[in-house]
Amino acid sequence: MAAIVASLVPDASFDQRRQAGVVLREGRPVDRVTLGDAWDALEGAVLGEPTFADSYRALVGAAGGLAIPRWLAIAPESPGTTDPPRAWFLVGLPGNLVALELVSGGAHATHCFRVAPRVAFTTGASRPADLDRAVREISEALLDARFLREPMALPDARLVEPRYLRYRLALQALPSLATARARFVARIVHRDPVSWRAALDDLIAWHGSARDEDAQWPGRAAQDAEVDEAETGAADPAEG
């Protein structure tokens, strides 16, 4: 991880790179406070793609500004190597949600997950302990699945299709993946900033008042269809 940090922020100060190398571990989410002065340098380094930079800033704005809880995690493409890394942010949102933004090629959507059981959520911000647990579990699942989000997000009716057998097997073999899938609420496609933000605001408003664990956001089906359309022609549809 020290080598990956050095490759990402070669112009950062020695103290910043040392701090990041100490606290970052493969796939472990680290918050702004823990990363300290290294946060700004790494945040800028992994937000090179305008689509992800814009959606990340919009997530931060929707959550209430720069002081909101957010985490960064980094891991190499292959375990134990210094391959070009994958990076992802997790942002605590209103409405009992946390958003996952994988800021690397092939990611077509922002994935949103439940923080606490819906029946236990009242109003306002999520409890820090609930957020920490959700962030840790989601990142663990992402790492275990080697950055595939579809096993977490694919609707039940499609998961039973023969071509998704490997996902069903993965969900049986990886408890972290099954846990993240149980938390999953919706994915919002990166089609354009206006429609993305409108869908996000609608999801936050709906989920903040939802109490039935089995209820689905009314906009989910349309977003899933848009993700499928965005992935058409991709080298690996499972990247979405």
Describe this structure in words.
With 240 residues, the chain is α+β, with helices and mostly antiparallel strands. It has one domain. It has helices at residues 2-8, 14-23, 32-35, 38-46, 50-63, 128-144, 150-153, 156-159, 165-173, 175-183, 193-209, 220-231, and strands at 30-31, 70-76, 85-93, 97-102, 109-114, 184-189. A 6-stranded antiparallel β-sheet has the order 1-2-3-4-5-6, sandwiched between helices. Helix 1 (2-8) packs across helix 2, helix 5 runs parallel beside helix 11 and helix 6 (128-144) crosses helix 10 (175-183). The chain is globular, with a radius of gyration of 17 Å. Residues 235-240 have low confidence and may be disordered.
N/C terminus separation: 26 Å
How would a textbook summarize the main sheet? Answer: 6 strands, antiparallel
The rounded Rg comes to: 17 Å
Beta-strand segment tally? 6
The run of helices and strands is HHEHHHEEEEHHHHHEHH
Query: Mean of residue pLDDT?
Result: 86
Overall, the morphology is globular
Number of helices: 12
Structural class: alpha+beta
Q: Uncertain runs with pLDDT below 50, 5 residues or more?
A: 235-240
Task: Describe, in short, the structure shown.
The chain has 240 residues and is an alpha+beta fold. The chain has 12 helices and 6 strands.
List keywords for this structure.
single chain; alpha+beta; 6-stranded antiparallel beta sheet; about 15% strand; globular; disordered C terminus
Helix/strand layout:
Blueprint: H1 2-8, H2 14-23, E1 30-31, H3 32-35, H4 38-46, H5 50-63, E2 70-76, E3 85-93, E4 97-102, E5 109-114, H6 128-144, H7 150-153, H8 156-159, H9 165-173, H10 175-183, E6 184-189, H11 193-209, H12 220-231
Antiparallel strand pairs: 1-2, 2-3, 3-4, 4-5, 5-6
